[in-house]
Each structure stands twice: as C-alpha cells, then as structure tokens.
Amino acid sequence: MAWTRKILRVDLTNGTCKVEPLNMAWAQQYLGQRGLATKYFVSEVDPKVDPLSPANKMIMTTGPLTGTPASTGGRYSVVTKGALTGAIACSNSGGYFGAELKFAGWDMIIFEGRSPKPVYLWLENDKAELRDAGHLWGKTVWQTEEIIKKTHQDPQIRISSIGRAGENGVLYACIVNDLHRAAGRSGVGTVMGSKNLKAVAVRGTLGNAGIKDPKAFMAAAAAGKKVLADNAVTGQGLPTYGTQVLMNVINEMGALPTRNHRDVQFEEARKISAEAMHEKRPTDGKSQLVTNAACFGCTIACGRISKIDETHFSVVNKPEYWGASGGLEYEAAWALGAANGVGDLEALQFANMICNEDGMDPISFGATVGAAMELYELGIIKKEAIGMDAPFGSAKALCDLAMMTAKGEGFGKELGLGSARMCAKYGKPELSMSVKKQEFPAYDARGIQGMGLTYATSNRGACHLRSYTVASEVFGIPVKTDPLVTDGKADLVKAFQDATAVFDSAGICVFTSFAWTLADVQPQIAAACEGDWTLEKLNEVGERIWNMERQFNLAAGFTAKDDDLPPRLKMEPAKVGPAKGLVNGIDKMRPEYYKTRGWDEQGVPTGDTLSRLGL
Amino acid sequence: MKVTFKLFAMLQDYLPAEAKKDNALVLELAEGTTILQVIERFALPLKSCHLVLVDGHFVPPAERAARALKEGETLAIWPPIAGG
Asked: How far B19 CA lies from chain A's nearest CA (Å)?
C-alpha cells in the first residue's frame, strides 16, 4: 500500500503503545520514510538533546512504496539523533523487515523515553505490546532472531534487533534485520540500546492495499522493472558481481583509501575483490561466494551470500560460522581490508560476520581499526594497551579486535568510541578520517573530488549514500564527469543529494538510481500516492528534506567549520595514480556549494531559500 | 613495447586461463598500437567495453581508436558496472 495512515507511538518509559493518524499534510510535503520521519523528529525533539538520553527519540519508518510491487520496495529507515555524530541520523535498510512492518499496517513507529528494563516490541498486525527481553539481553542478533521466532512459533516473523555492540555502547552500533541487513550508520543501534529496546518483531498479514490507482501503478512498476532488467549495470553487473566489483576499479583509479588514507592504492586489492570471491580456494575447492541474494521485491539482487573457509584461523573449531552468511559487500570489504592494509579475504568475511552478528557498522569499525593501527605504528598506542601487535596488515588483529569491540572487552572499548574520539584521546585528532565524527567510506576524496564535498556536507556525517557522485565521476551515470577536477561538483553534489533524499523517502533502494532517474520513479509514486506528484514536486521535496536536515544540525550546534575534511586530505597529496600530487579542493567547492544551495557564507539557508521551500 | 592489459568482471573470461588469477597479462605490442586494436585482438564486445582506463585515466569511446598505447602503460577495461 502507499501510506497506511497509521503511526504507532511507543512510550518506553511508561510501557505504553498508542495509535495515531499519520499527518497527511506532512506526507504531501515530505513523502515518507526519511523525509516524513525526519519531519516528525525535528518537530518533537530538541536539537541539542543528548543522543543517548531518554529525551532523544527513535523512529522506524517505511515509505509509500515499501511493501508494494515496485522493484526494491522493501526499504525502511531509522531516524534519530546519531550517537556517533550528534547530527541528524537516517539509516536505511533492505531485507524483509520494512515490508512486513507495512503489511502489519504501520507507516512508522516512534519510540520515546527509556524502558526501565530490557524489552522488545511485538507487533502482530494491529496488536502491539512490549515484552520482557531480559532473556535476550546479552545475546547476539542471530541468537535474538532465533529465540523470538521460537517464542512466537512463527519462522516468518521479521525482526530488527541490536546485538551486544548496541548494548555495550559501541557508538557505531547498527540495527540488524533478517540476519545481515542493517540500518548501519551513525550509531542508530546505540540509541536503541540506550532505550533498553532489544528488538522489534513484526508479523503482518494485512497485505497490500490503498494504492491510489492500482492499474496505473502496476503498469508503472512493470515499466520500472523493465528499465532495471534492460540496464547492463542493474540487470547484469550488480547481480553477478555485487558492489564488490568496485574494489579493482577504484584501486586502479588511485582512489582506494589504504592504511588510514596514507595511500590511495592497495597492493592486495585484487585479493579482496569480487573477482577473488568467485575463485575456487585451494583449501576446499570452493569459492567464497555461494550465491547472490535479493531484498524484498528487488529485481536487482546485488546481495552476496558467502561461506568462509572452514580451515581459516578465525573459525577453526567454530562451526557456528561455517554456514552461508551475508557479505562481503564493497564498503565492508574496503573498511575491513584496504583501510587497514589487510589482504586476507577470509579474515574480512569473519570480521564482517562479527559485525552482522553483534550489530556494528563495518565501515566505522574497520576505519577505526585503521586509525588504531596507524597510532600503533607511530608508537603512540603500545602493544600492551591493545593486548596484541596491531600493525597495518594484521588479519589476526582485525579478527580479534572485531570480537573484542562487539563484546566491549579490553581495547575494544576504545575502538567502540569511533576514530574521532579515539584519536583525540591519544592526542592525534587529525588521524581520524571522518567528518562530523563519522568515518569515511571507500572512496578517496583526492582521486574523486566530488566525494570530498559529499563527505564534508553530508547531513549525517561522512557518507557516500547522501550524494553518490561516484556514479557520475567514475561510471558516467547519468553523465561522465572528470573525477580529478572540482569544477561543476557543487551542482553535481546538490543534484545527487536532493534526488537521493527522494529515493530514500519513497521506500525504494538508491541502487535503482544506476538505471532510474526520478522520471522513472515519479510515475510509480504518482500512481500509488494521493496528491499531484509531479517531477517538479519531487525535486522540491528532495531539496526541502535536505534543508530541513541542515536546519536541525545547525540548531544542534554544527557550523560551517564542520563541513570540512581532515588535514590529510587537504595537505597530503596522493602519492601515486591519476591523482598523484592532488589534494581535495574542498575549500574551493564549499563556498560554491553554499551559493548553489541558497545558503549564506556560513552555510545557513537564507530566508528566501527557507521561504521558497516552505520551511 | 610492453603494456599491461587487465580485464575485470565478465570480461575476464576473455583472458587466457593463466592470466585470470591476476586479471592481467603483459602484452608485447607494436609501437603505435591503439586501445581499439587491443580490444579487437581479444574480440571483446565493444558494448561491453564501458569503463576503459589507461593508467587509471578514463578514455572516452570516441578516443579509443586513435589513442596509441605507450611503453609501460596499463590498459584496464570493465563492462558496465556500479556499486556503492
């Protein structure tokens, strides 16, 4: 269905659940999911709230296309003030949880307060109740899913939960659904843990209704699927090789951040790439990759399902890790691998499984390990403090530190702070490769200039999914631009940011944008949703969402100084590759971007801009 | 002259078996050999040669017939791909 027009408000402090009607006037202005939930959030929460206090709220939200036959229409998001960043957070996940939430009849769930004891929310269509989770506290995500399904005697229940990382205050804890899909970034799982909320379990059997024009919608959805199937990227490249196909591309371009961004090419990139995942191992004659996988309603199926080498040191005598499991995706493989110089594909899969099992963002975890390894090599953090040797390239250290961080043991507690806080603690804040305390993803901003502006201005801290200019600067989607120049990047970033906000608010996956433009999405929204959803209106909705998020961050205390990159990317030129000799031109792009946005020189939206957008 | 030639993703099937492990092999080419001539020599479908990089720099389709390779360069080719 499009909107169910129904919200569940859960007061965790008092243990109550209340049904509210969806604000349909807001739905017309913010569409759904990211946009609409953020509108609720900024309307109800003090921007200066401590993210881990009961006064912070957390919203699980679907989009109008979630649960519909639109391709990839299975997305849901978690909106809150991020524990890692202190900025607006919106983390998006696939899998099957989002569609199930919709089938149970809910547009969103607003969680407020803090439960006096661990609980989980059980939703069965209209029925909503908080249940004791004392027996689940201390369990992993994987154990939690199994126990809840057994408790309710229904294997078709869909569950989003935190693992031990979220319980232990790892600041980049995520919320995992369907075992290995995650609302991954900014520490949304940490916020959930602070509320003593272990899981949300949902069973929805109300099905799909409420589409404005079912016949037109099915035609629009089918047309969209044909575009995806006919496109070489979404029809062939992504299903066959997944996102991991990027490892060799980005390395060849000299834009693969390596050893905490000291280098821009990793000599062992080939060993941790998609091509390597397809190869048969000498130990057992099997490839790591077992199959690809799709989230609800997805006709791309980029997901990877893999089996680790049972003889690898990380899993000897640990048969619980020998089964098929999620990963590796590109971002995780980069963060766990190149970012800390580890070229052991099996070690990366093990660390990735730990991240899934206990709910940690592998990007922030891996990048924080990279920072710790640099501090170790500089002699600033000693072996005794870490509990082991931890030079760049140590697969053993990576695997051990993953387990220690998830469990909150030893040096893992410091890694759980994220790189910004950890590096500041050791007197080297400049070695954190982050913006707004969130670690960079897998593209070096010296070799792909637009990504520097993307990171610096992302409302949720450094992130590739807020404006994936890689599509244009590397792959030529929708048009090829030069990755080594700053000219035109302000306009490019704004266009990607606004369009992505619409994709994220519709209930579909942003990966469709490799084949779809908003012109392909618009007919689906227009047929599904009440109102006049023109292309112009969608573009305006995207811009409105971006500026709303910006306003929240400014009120939270962020300034133009926070729209910046670490000195390494501004002062240490790339040593090799096409970007050799280049640093990122953020200081040139930032003022151009502010102007393009209709913001003043301090990055504050002008009165005219706010008025134009109805903010 | 020697040029390193790399093929990735679905295009790696066009490499000799012994080169697949590294996705690369070293070619001995006559001076002046162009990118397009290498593509034709390996019978690569032109529509699959989407991302063509020489030493990491993108070479647009219109320049591939004229762009002569030089000693020591690396030519790397991918079919249409993306990720995130």
From this structure: 13
Mutate to test the interface with B, among A271, A474, A480 (most CBs of B within 10 A): A474
Is A272 inside any structural domain? yes
Quote ipTM for the complex. 0.98
Distance CA A273, CA A248 (A): 7
Cβ within 8 Å, pair B9-A279: no
Q: Check CB contact under 8 Å for A236 and B80.
A: yes
Burial (CB count within 10 angstroms: exposed 0-12, middle 13-18, buried 19+), residue A111:
buried
Least confident of A305-309, A486-490, B79-83: B79-83
Residue B19 near chain A (CB below 8 Å): no
Give the model's pLDDT for residue A315: 98
Range of the domain at A321: 254-439
Asked if residue A435 and residue A478 are part of one domain, the reply reads no
CATH number at residue A145: 3.60.9.10
Q: Residue A55: its pLDDT value, please?
A: 98
Check whether residue A162 and residue A181 sit in a common domain. yes
- What CATH number is given to the structural domain containing A354? 1.10.569.10
Is A353 a residue whose pLDDT tops 90?
Answer: yes
**Judgement on whether residues A151 and A268 belong to the same structural domain of the protein:** no
Last residue of a domain, one of A439, A470, A492: A439
Spell A6-38 as b/e; 16+ CB within 10 A means b. Answer: ebbbbebeeeebeeeebbeeebbbbbbbbbbbb
Taking residues B59-82, what's their average pLDDT?
A: 97
Does the CA dihedral A71-A72-A77-A82 come out positive or negative? negative
A256: its two tokens: 């693969």
The encoded tokens of residue B8 equal 């990735």
Which pTM was predicted? 0.98
Whether residue A553 is predicted with pLDDT greater than 80 in this model: the reply is: yes
**Parallel, antiparallel, or unpaired for β A119-124 and A197-203?**
parallel
- Residue A392, classed as helix, strand or coil, is coil
Nearest to B80 among A237, A242, A243 (CB): A237
Q: For the segment B22-49, what is each residue's pLDDT rounded down to a tens digit? A: 999 999 999 999 999 999 999 999 999 9
- On whether residue A591 sits in a domain, the answer given is yes
Whether A565 and A587 share a structural domain: yes
In a domain, A213, yes or no: no
A1 pLDDT band, cuts 50/70/90, is: low
Best of A92, A475, A479 to disrupt the B interface by mutation (most B CBs within 10 Å)?
A: A475
Tally of structural domains, chain A: 3
Using a CB–CB cut-off of 8 Å, the residues of A that contact B are: 231-233, 236-238, 240-246, 248-249, 252-254, 270, 274-275, 279, 302, 330-331, 464-465, 468, 470-471, 474-477, 480, 510-511, 514, 577-578
Residues of A in Cβ contact (< 8 Å) with B64: none
Q: What is the pLDDT of residues A368-387, one digit of tens each?
A: 999 999 999 999 999 999 99
B16 part of contact set with chain A, CB < 8 Å: no
Q: Give the CATH number for residue A507.
A: 1.10.599.10
Decide if B79 and A232 are in contact by the 8 Å CB cutoff: yes
Domains detected in chain B = 2-78 (3.10.20.30)
Question: How far is A433 from A419, CA to CA, in rounded Å?
Answer: 7
Shared-domain flag, residues A360 and A426: yes
Query: Looking at the structure, do residues A428 and A523 belong to the same domain, yes or no?
Result: no
The reply to whether A211 falls in a domain is no
